Amino acid sequence: MKLRVLARMIQIQQVLLKHGLDDFVRATHLYRPLRLLVLLMPGVWLARRRRASRGERLREALTELGPIFVKFGQAISTRRDLLPADIADELAQLQDRVPPFPGAVAAARIEQGYGRKLSEVFGEFTETPLAAASIAQVHAARLHDGREVVVKVLRPGMHEVISRDLEVLYALARLAQRYWSESRRLRPVELVAEYEKTVLDELDLMREAGNAAQLKRNFADTDLLYVPEVHWDLCRRDVMVMERIHGVPISDMARLRAAGTDFARLAHNGVRIFFTQVFRHNFFHADMHPGNIFVLIDDPSHPRYAAVDFGIVGTLDPRDQRYLAENFLAVFDRDYRRVATLHLESGWVPAGTRVDEIESAVRTVCEPIFERPLKDISFGHLLLRLFEISRRFNVSIQPQLMLLQKTLFNIEGLGRDLYPELDIWSTASPILREWMRERVSVRSILKGLRQQLPELIEAARTVPPLLAGAIQRAHEGELQLRLAVPEIDALKRTVDEAHRRRDSVIMGVGLALGGLIWVGLSRPAWIGWVMIALGVVWLWIARRRGA
Fold first, then answer.
1. 282, 321 Cβ separation under 8 angstroms
2. What average pLDDT score do residues 163-180 get?
C-alpha cells in the first residue's frame, strides 16, 4: 500500500474521531488497528470538547474530508425515510452550502482559462458565489449584450485531491475483496471503478456542457423540464457558462407554498421525468439532489422543473433497460414468478438456483408491503428488503446500475417531501407499459431491421472473399484450425443460433409482406391480416431470441 494512501486512511480516521463519530470508526473494521494510535493524538481530544449534534458533527466531518465524502452525504441526504430526521436535515446543507473558495481565486482561474481579462469577457462579474459545491462553484455574471449568465469554475487542486481519494477507495476495495466474504457478490473494486468514471467525468466541464445540450434536446418538445442554454464559445475544461434561470430552489417549501404551487402535479412530474429519461431517452440526470433542482412558478398551477449541474449523467445497456422495466412491471403486478425468472435469465443469480425459492422469498418481502395503501409504499424500503434477498441468494451486484439506484432514491425522496400522498407506482406504471408496447410494435421491429440492414449487407459482402480464401488455403494444404474443442462448440452454437434467427426474420418478413400483398389484391382480406399477424409474431420471437 502506498504511503500517501495509508496516511490518508489515518487522516480519515482522525477526522471522524475528532468530530466524535466513534460509532462510525468502530463499524469500520479495517480501521480498528489504527484507532488507538489516532486517539492518542492531542488535536483529536481538543476538538472533541465541543459538543454539537450528531448530524452537525457528521456534516462537518464529511465537509472536512473533501469532495468524494461530500458527494456521499449529498446522495443519502434525500432519503428521509431511511435516515433519522436530525441527520437528514444537516446533510441536506451539503447540497448547496459547502464552504466556498475566494472569489478572487475563481476570477483568476477564469482569466487563466480564457487567456484574457475578465472584463473583456463579461460586462459584470460577481465575485461572491451564488452556490458552492464539492467540486466547483458558481458565480453570477452578465455578458456585454446584457444577457444574464452563470459561470461555473472548478475548485483549485481538484484533480490531485480526487486522485488521492480514489487511491484510498481502491485500497479499501482491494482489502475488502481479499478478506471480506461478501466481496465476490458485492464486487467492491468494480464499484469503485464505476464511481471513478463518474467522478472524473465531473472534472471536465466541456463534457458537462455537452450533457446539458443533449438533455435540452431531449425535452425540447415538452414543458416537463427546462434546461438552461449553454454558451459554447465561453466553455472550457475548467470553466462553463450557461443561461441564468430565476427559479425557486425545490427545498424552499415555504416560498413554493406561498406562491400556491400545485405540489401534487410537481411530484408526479418528477416521477414522469425520471422514467422518461431512463426508458424513453436512455439518458438521465443522475445527480438530482435538491441543490440541483429549481421550480419555475410563472404559473403556479403548472409548475415546471429546471435542472442545473449536469456533470453526472447515466445511460443503460438495452438489456439492462428491458430487465429493469420487466422487473418493475412484474412487481407492480405482483407476478413474483416473473421476478424470479428474470433474475435467473439475467445471469446475476448463480446457476442451479431454484426459481420457486426465489419466488417465495420475493413474495415474502412484497406481500406485506402491498397490503398498505400505494401512497405509503416506499421504493427505498422495498429495495432494501430486496437487497436482503440478493444477499441470501448470492446475487451479483451490478455496478452499472449504481447511478440509476441512487437517482431513483433521490427522486422518490424529493417526491415524498413535496407531496406525501405521492403514488409513485401509478405514475410510473403507464410509462413503462407504453414503452414495453412500443418495443414489440411492428414499427419498432421494422425500424430495428432497417437500422441493422447496412451491417447485415456489409457482413454478407465479406463472407465470399473469406470463403474463397479459406478454400484456396485448404486446396494448397495450408489451412490450419487453432481452436480448442470448446471454442468450436461455442462457435457452432453461435452460428446455429444466428442461422435460426435469420430464418425466423426471413419467415416473419415474408409472411408480413405476403399478407400485405394479399390484403391489397385478393379476397377474403382476413387471410392477409392473419398472415401479417403471424409475421409480426414471428419477428417478435426472433427479436426476443437475439435480445
1. yes
2. 77
Closest CA to 276 of 222, 320, 228: 222
Task: Cis check for the bond before 464: say yes or no (omega within 30 of 0).
Answer: no
For the ranges 20-29, 267-276, 319-328, the lowest mean pLDDT is seen at 20-29
C-alpha cell of residue 138: 458558481
Neighbours of 454 (CB within 10 A): 9
Given a contact cutoff of 8 angstroms between Cβ atoms, the answer to whether 248 and 297 are in contact is yes
Q: How far apart are the first and last CA of the chain?
A: 43
β partners of residue 240: 152
Give the C-alpha separation, 425 to 331, whole Å: 10
In sequence order, what are the beta bridge partners of 248? 295
111: cell is: 482569466
Q: Of residues 165, 287, 309, 417, which has the active-site annotation? A: 287
Least confident of 114-123, 274-283, 476-485: 476-485
Query: Which residues of 94-175 form beta strands (DSSP E)?
Result: 124-125, 131-132, 136-142, 148-154
Q: Mark out the alpha helices in 333-484 (DSSP H runs).
A: 336-345, 355-370, 379-392, 402-418, 424-439, 442-475
How far, in Å, are 24, 197, 351, 384, 465 from residue 397 at the CA level?
24, 17, 16, 13, 44
C-alpha to C-alpha distance for 145 and 356, rounded to whole angstroms: 68
Q: State the average pLDDT over residues 114-123.
A: 94
Residue 127 is predicted with a pLDDT of 94
Beta strands 239-243 and 148-154: pairing type? antiparallel
DSSP symbol at 221: T
Residue type, 215: L
Are 13 and 31 spatial neighbours (Cβ–Cβ below 8 Å)?
A: yes
Quote the CA–CA distance of 457 and 378 in Å, as a whole number: 49
Q: Assess contact for 197 and 230: CB atoms under 8 A.
A: no
Helices and strands in the chain: count of H runs, count of E runs? 24, 11
**Cα dihedral 173, 174, 178, 183 sign:** positive
Helix residue ranges, H only, 122-235: 158-179, 183-186, 188-202, 205-218
287 is catalytic: yes
Express each pLDDT in 241-299 by its tens digit. Answer: 999 999 999 989 999 999 999 999 998 998 899 889 988 899 999 888 788 899 999 99
The helix (H) or strand (E) run that includes residue 36 is: helix 32-39
Lowest mean pLDDT among 51-60, 151-160, 433-442, 446-455: 446-455
62: confidence class by pLDDT, cuts 50, 70, 90: confident
What cell numbers appear for 253 in the block? 417549501
Residue 172 pLDDT greater than 90, yes or no: no
User: Is the previous residue joined to 33 through a cis bond, with omega within 30 degrees of 0?
Assistant: no
3-state DSSP assignment of residue 97: strand
C-alpha cell at position 492: 457452432
Matching residue, cell 471536465: 204
* Under 8 Å between Cβ of 530 and 514: no
DSSP 314-328: E---HHHHHHHHHHH
